[in-house]
Amino acid sequence: MKIIDIFHKILFLSLPVMVLAGCGEPKFKVSGEVEGGADRSLVLEKSDFYGRWIPVDSVRIKSSGKFEMESDAPASPEIYRLSLDGKFIYFPVDSIESITVDSPAANFGSDFTVGGSEQAANLAAFEKELMALDFADEAKRDEFKKSVYNKYLKDSQGGIIGYYVLTKIVDGKPLYDPASASDAKYYAAVATAFDQFRPNDPHAGMLRDVSLQALRRRNAGQGKTRVVEAEEITMIDIDLPNENGKNVKLSDVAGKGKKTVLIFSMMNQPESPALNIALSELFDSFGGNVAFYHVSFDADQYAWRDAARNLRWTTVIDPAGMTSDALRSYNVGSMPVFFIYTADGQLADRAQSVAELREKL
Questions:
Q1: Do residues 327 and 210 share a domain?
Q2: Helix 138-148 to helix 118-131 angle, to the nearest 10 degrees?
Q3: 314-317 and 290-296 as β-strands: parallel, antiparallel, unpaired?
């Protein structure tokens, strides 16, 4: 099973290595042993709030397999990872801690132990249980989610592991789906814990917004709101400017009698021209029976506008870029990604490639 977390697959920014050089700042340390990894480069990376990985330190593993690194302690709890040859071991850092990580180089990322804090041990245990899960089995998946909540989230008091688990992506799909009414209770519980124990944590706002949307959808499905309200929340709406500066809502396009594809991508990436050609071919193949609503997150709005004008469907840009509410609301962990709305405006499916999108349409 291929496991990808929301932090792992963001491909839309290339970030420089940041050198942390503050004197006298609180530090945390990570050390351990990578058996068989002598003289290989081990990188410590930090996840920022928007899913990007920033290298903060690196070392050559000693001939004995031992390594040791330290970095400035984060202002609020964050997720870090060790990277070795494209494989990763994740752990949380809450304050001034000493984290230990041991793993054989040959099975780095799958065979490991993490210690130093209860949260770190819990996150490692969760990762191993997830690797053993048959994600395709819906009954086992639902039972797993209940078990994870009871073991790691219920009493976490707003720990970063709650945010990490809820935003975990497996095989391109969220483990806990904010669009699923049955998962609303998990988001609500974790968001409540953040509000109670860590109200100023930057992750709290995102969890609060997503949990409220999830609860509204669940209540609408159970008939707990008026019909007009239920109609208003059948989609997670977006309202952004097009290439002419005029705001266009997703609800202006979707739910108008034809299937609609919501596209999240960038226009200024090397793969973007090929993606747009593939999308054009798909668009043409349906002879006008499918609508596209294409959201871009490019920093260079002038370049985006030039590219967007060549496309024959609705294109909008999110000036918030990586801080976009839309990325959080749709639990986006990689781009491009595609969401399919039914002809009557119901969010129905998700695809990670144009080929998968074609098949699901």
A1: no
A2: 170
A3: parallel
